[in-house]
Every structure is written in C-alpha cells, then in structure tokens.
Write a structure and sequence with these properties.
The complex is a heterodimer of chains A (117) and B (112). Helix content of chain A is 0%, strand content 49%. Chain A has 117 residues and is mainly beta. In chain A, strands 2, 4, 5, 6, 9, 10 and 11 form a seven-stranded mixed beta sheet that branches. The radius of gyration of chain A is 14 Å and the shape is globular. In chain B, strands 2, 4, 5, 9, 10 and 11 form a six-stranded mixed beta sheet that branches. Chain B has 112 residues and is mainly beta. Helix content of chain B is 0%, strand content 56%. The chains are: A mainly beta (117), B mainly beta (112). At the A-B interface, β4, β5 and β10 of A face β4, β5, β9 and β10 of B.
Chain lengths: 117, 112
Amino acid sequence: GAGVSQSPSNKVTEKGKDVELRCDPISGHTALYWYRQSLGQGLEFLIYFQGNSAPDKSGLPSDRFSAERTGGSVSTLTIQRTQQEDSAVYLCASSPWVDPSGANVLTFGAGSRLTVL
Amino acid sequence: GENVEQHPSTLSVQEGDSAVIKCTYSDSASNYFPWYKQELGKGPQLIIDIRSNVGEKKDQRIAVTLNKTAKHFSLHITETQPEDSAVYFCAASDPGTYKYIFGTGTRLKVLA
C-alpha cells in the first residue's frame, strides 16, 4: 500500500479482555517496528521484526504482550488480560531494509489508540 | 543502553520567529539521529536526519546540528509558520541494535 496501515484506529476494551492490533506495512518493507506512545511520553520501543523473525523483543513490557509477523508482511500485536496501564497509542513503523549502519528511515502508521476501562 | 533527553517540552513562538529544540544522548557510539514531526491524530513523520560523520544538515527552513563531543543535537526551524505547529521528537540509534530511542517530545505552537 501507499503507507503503513493500522487497525483498529480506536479500541475501547474492559480490563481483563484480550486485544489484537494489526499493522500492514508498506509493501516490500522488510523491517517492522512496534512502539507505544503513552500520554505525554515519548515513543517506547516494544519489538522489531526482520522478515518474520523478531531478533529484539526486549521492549515487551510483560508476558501478556506478544507479536507475530506472517509472510514478511502483516504483523499483529496481542495484549492478553489488558490492564488500565496498557492504555496508550500503539504505533507501527516499517523500513525498506535493515541498514547495518543503523540509519533506517522509519515510516509510521497513524496508530491504534487503546483505552482500557 | 541509549538514553535520550529532549527540551523544552513545550515551546511557543510568534510566526516568523525561529524555534530551537535540543536533545542529548548518552551513548557516544550512536551514529544516526532522526527528527520526527507528529501532527494531531497522525503518526510521526521523518522531517530531517543526520549521521554522526556530519556536523550540520539543512533542508529549506529546517536544520539539524550535531555536537558529538558534547553528545547533543538540535533542531532549528526558521521563519516559523502556523503549519509548523506539532509535536517534534528527536531520536538516536541504539548501538548494536536496530532500534531507535526517542525523546519525550516538544509541543511547538506557532502563534499567528
């Protein structure tokens, strides 16, 4: 597609429920990132994919969070047994390739706003 | 790991004036420093970036400077316009990984 697409754009859920957030990266982009943006905070790294592999899961806050990527394209971030502190905007970004120098240009989606009541 | 601090958290300027946002980083091995602009309801968008082998980069009204010795970098916007109003984030590459550490953001308001 023309850009990174995320769905849903807004999700309100009750504490304890599971949620799935979806990211459609730009076609052909091999690298995919998930970040979390809490109110008044910066972007907190969650996980990074190179193809379907996740070499860096260091940012996942707890074992309630998991993510997968299939076919080198679509990624799903799953939060089990949601808590109020999970309320945030979840941003997905993709990059054409992994630059060994570290200079990857990320293109972000508009985000999924999650509210846990 | 890398840590990035960003100041100020909010900045108001009159239209036509300049705006400067400053960031510091902790890991001297960081080699890539992008700046993102986030408008309301949208994802962050890259506006300019700089690599560690360059001291300054300019793109029309936007410029970024990097001082490797002091480990700080700054975003300069000249002749500000109302459409420059947004939240700006700095970031630094995290050495040995493929992730980027972001600052906490600066909300810029350009007053007409």
